[in-house]
Specification:
Elements (H helix, E strand, L loop, with lengths): L1 H23 L5 H11 L3 H14 L6 H14 L3 H14 L4 H14 L3 H19 L9 H26 L1
Helix pairs in contact: 1-2, 1-4, 2-3, 3-4, 4-5, 5-6, 6-7, 6-8, 7-8
């Protein structure tokens, strides 16, 4: 039951990232068409090569942080820590404010018992980024209540991960 819930949440996040990324590319462009095709694909296993192809075809895309975040979510479902770290680091490099990627990479490092300083640092950055989100108004694709819920969910995840990473480090 827990795995099913996590899988459903990850798929929902993939759809959220797809809508965000779609808004960052020029409508009707090849980039937009490729991203829409990825978003329409229901199978995470089929999305992986499509996402990797998108990265190769559009290396300067403003949507790359979302592409990497989608890959992180897929690999979280697969419980593949090495891939979570690989694409999570890329997502963080593309967007330092990406709370989900910071939490995911921190968790992967902590679970592996390696790079524990980085795990704590990333979790702290996630907490700090959530604090900044609290002072921002809701983006146009969120209602006020959805934005507040997103902040709360991110805050819970970031603070929980910070506690976990600190505990593992000691």
């Amino acid at each position: 039951m827990k795995l099913k819930t996590i899988s459903v949440l990850c798929i929902a996040l993939v759809l959220v990232f797809a809508s965000i990324a779609s808004a960052q590319v020029k409508a009707g462009s090849d980039e937009d068409k490729a991203f829409r095709k990825i978003a329409a694909e229901k199978s995470p296993d089929a999305q992986i090569p499509m996402l990797l192809d998108f990265e190769k075809q559009f290396p300067q895309s403003k949507a790359l942080s979302e592409v990497y975040a989608m890959l992180v979510d897929i690999y979280m479902m697969k419980q593949d820590n090495a891939k979570i770290i690989e694409y999570g680091e890329k997502a963080i490099k593309a967007d330092q404010k990406n709370v989900s990627a910071l939490v995911a990479v921190s968790r992967a490092y902590a679970m592996a018992g390696k790079n524990l300083e980085v795990a704590v640092s990333y979790a702290q950055k996630a907490v700090d980024n959530v604090e900044k989100m609290k002072s921002e108004s809701a983006p146009s694709n969120y209602s006020e209540s959805e934005w507040k819920q997103l902040i709360k969910d991110n805050e819970d995840a970031a603070k929980g991960q910070l506690s976990y990473a600190k505990a593992v480090k000691q």
